[in-house]
Amino acid sequence: MNLASRLESACKTYSARILISESTYSNLRGTYRIRGIDQVVVKGKSKPVTIYEVLDYHTPDSFPDMMDVIGYFNEGIEHYRGGQFAKAIDRFQKALARHARDDLTATYIERCRHLIDNPPGDIWDGVWYMTEK
Fold it and tell me: For a Cys-Cys bond, which of 6, 92, 95, 111 suits 42, CB 3.0-4.6 Å?
């Protein structure tokens, strides 16, 4: 219940309508359009959890070129987690070129720019620490 509450609050941070945890993701049966969006440590916890965004409610008008965007986004996430922030920005920008209203991708570009300006050093593990409930 506590994690579900934190994920509900995180929807605003991630510009997402539906976020689920890795345990929910692993229990899903059937075909859903989902993208992995982050590894986070929520306030009050110490271990990271992978979170996902459910995209099934979108139409081609509300999320054009979804598969291409997700492909570029996933490549950006790989570079981001690997600490290659400039490469991540390049992939995220390609995603935004396909769907300019994808606010989550824009958020990652901002994060990467922040991390380029404020390098995390050797401690970077690709995990985002949420400090708000």
Answer: 6
